[in-house]
TrEMBL record:
Protein name per Swiss-Prot or TrEMBL: AraC family transcriptional regulator
Lineage of origin: Bacteria, Bacillati, Actinomycetota, Actinomycetes, Micrococcales
Metal-binding keyword on record: no
Chain ranges of the DJ-1/PfpI domain: 66-226
Key words, A-Z: Membrane, Transmembrane, Transmembrane helix
Transmembrane spans: 408-426
Record-linked Gene3D superfamilies: 3.40.50.880
Matching SUPFAM superfamilies: Class I glutamine amidotransferase-like (SSF52317)
Recorded superkingdom: Bacteria
A UniProt-annotated Pfam family: DJ-1_PfpI
């Protein structure tokens, strides 16, 4: 029969075995999940004056003071801009650079106040990406502005966990909505007045359209184009960006994702990827917004590769966004990649790699590169978080992050051996004390008169 003492001993062994990996892995986790801090010298990099065509509908991509998820913001922006049918602007409460995930600093086109001088009324479409401070007081300038836009008749499109931003403002109460599979359960508990929907890439509930995770935002944005401009315009935009999953007429059904055993890969990468590579991403003029997002987001979602925006100064993207690099050189970095299909003069550092020279959607080449420099399981994790179907995408590389896994196993074994040594020492001390007590007792018995006289 297993005793309570034996159970407690097993529990103590497990806790001690995990304590060492946890202690040594925690700094890596904190570093991997740390929020990006933008450069603060963006005042000299103000975008070119905004051109506005009053004959076109206006679409706004709003970003918070602490930034937004890079794909959530840039993919809808490029799709809407590609159609040529919209005025498209990025807007924030202040004019300083804001960090998009992965370390890409964006200078918003307009502040909320400046937008008022451009438009006579509300925007026609407002795209709300996921923000790192969703549900926190720091989003109040954004949520207050969204409430005003909604009250004036703007169509709201939340991308991924941008649904949490809308829900925190009360703008999803009484609506059907969806969000990223990793957080929809949390949102369901926090925002009970919303009817949360799973297993679909987007939900159109009239005044609000919400999408599931990250690249499901492409489907939602194409639906906005289809709804406001027409089916042909949406099909042309999908072809222009290489999106082969376009599903006109309604959302494509999908299996609701959830965490599985294979997703342990992210824990090993995050906690034990002590030597994870840092990739410089060269910012070049005219680069596509989705091409940029594909590099920063794919590597970032893997939690196995760090990224640094590199360049000589502010650059303008294909459709006019302004970005600021964080480093002028790639010297000291492990790799250097160049988004886009055009070769450029490289900066000091590693030999440049071009990930978008092959045909297809920009994320394909980055996922294939990620599999080669890390492993296939990590690439599958990144695609799962991005909600990007890759059944038809060939990936080659190691199958699993074996080095990181062996680090965990080695540390866990070391922790368990240390625990066993402590247990042995405690037992030896206890047994030694018991033996000494027995000897003292025996000596007392022998020296007792009653014992001596038999």
């Amino acid at each position: 029969m297993v005793t309570v003492r034996a159970i407690l001993k097993i529990v103590a062994l497990v806790i001690t075995a995990l304590a060492l990996p946890a202690a040594l892995g925690a700094p890596t986790v904190i570093g991997a999940l740390a929020l990006n801090v933008p450069r603060t010298d963006g005042a000299s990099a103000r975008p070119a004056p905004v051109a506005h065509d009053p004959a076109k509908p206006t679409a706004i991509v709003v970003v918070g003071d602490r930034g937004a998820v890079v794909s959530d913001a840039l993919a809808p922006y490029e799709i809407l801009a590609t159609t040529g049918a919209f005025n498209v602007y990025t807007v924030a409460s202040e004019s300083h650079p804001v960090p998009l995930t992965g370390g890409l600093d964006l200078v918003p086109d307009l502040t909320f106040a400046e937008l008022e001088h451009v438009l006579d009324g509300p925007a026609d479409v407002v795209v709300v990406p996921a923000m790192p401070d969703v549900g926190q007081p720091t989003t109040k300038p954004v949520t207050d502005w969204l409430v005003t836009q909604a009250s004036r008749g703007a169509l709201l499109l939340s991308v991924c966990n941008g649904a949490g931003v809308l829900a925190s403002a009360g703008l999803l109460d009484g609506h059907r909505a969806t969000a990223h599979w990793l957080r929809i359960d949390e949102f369901e508990g926090r925002y009970a007045a919303v009817e949360w929907v799973r297993g679909t890439r987007y939900v159109d509930d009239g005044a609000v359209i919400s999408t599931a995770g990250v690249l499901s935002g492409i489907d939602g944005t194409l639906h906005v184009v289809e709804r406001l401009i027409g089916a042909d315009a949406a099909a042309d935009a999908a072809e222009a960006i290489g999106w082969r999953h376009h599903h006109p007429g309604g959302p494509a059904p999908m299996e609701q994702a959830g965490l599985g055993a294979s997703d342990a890969v992210v824990a090993f990468n995050t906690a034990f990827g002590w030597d994870r590579p840092t990739v410089g991403v060269l910012l070049t003029g005219g680069v596509g917004e989705i091409e940029l997002a594909s590099v920063f987001d794919t590597y970032g979602e893997s939690l196995a590769v760090g990224t640094v925006a590199v360049g000589a100064g502010p650059v303008r993207s294909r459709h006019g966004l302004t970005f600021i690099p964080r480093s002028e050189t790639a010297a000291g970095l492990d790799r250097l990649v160049v988004p886009g299909t055009t070769e450029h003069d490289a900066v000091a550092g590693p030999e440049p790699e071009y990930l978008h020279h092959g045909r297809g959607f920009p994320y394909d080449g980055v996922l294939q590169n990620l599999a080669r420099i890390t492993d296939v399981s990590t690439a599958h994790w990144a695609a799962k978080v991005l909600e990007y179907p890759i059944d038809d995408l060939a990936l080659s590389g190691p199958t699993w992050p074996w080095t990181e896994t062996l680090r965990f196993v080695g540390l866990a074994a070391g922790g368990m051996l240390a625990a066993l040594a402590v247990f042995a020492l405690v037992r030896r001390t206890r047994d030694g004390g018991s033996a000494a007590a027995r000897r003292e007792r025996d000596q007392l018995l022998v020296s007792s008169p009653n014992v001596r006289n038999g």
